[in-house]
Amino acid sequence: MEVLERLRCDPTSAAIPVILVTAKAADWDLLAGYKSGADYYVIKPFTARQILYAIGHVLGGQQPR
After folding, report:
1. Alpha-carbon distance 43 to 22, whole Å?
2. Where are the domains of the chain?
3. Which of 12, 37, 44, 50 is a plausible cystine mate for 23, CB 3.0–4.6 Å?
4. What is the pTM of this model?
5. Angle made by CA atoms 41, 47, 49, in degrees to the nearest 5
6. Helix, strand counts (H, E) of the chain
7. What is the Cα 25 distance to its own chain's centre?
8. CA-wise closest residue to 17 among 49, 36, 40
9. CA 30, 31, 33, 34 torsion: positive or negative?
């Protein structure tokens, strides 16, 4: 979370999309991730479809069917 917060505070990296991929699945972990500036949060284990969805969502691309 500290790295993410630093990325968001630096004007040269603030706009870089960030997807957190973690095994932390508690509600407060997810909320902390979004409060720290994550664009999307993926909990392990995950499927390829979930990662593709996250990438598409964050980049504004088309979603897999």
Report:
1. 5
2. 2-59
3. 44
4. 0.85
5. 85
6. 3, 2
7. 13
8. 40
9. positive
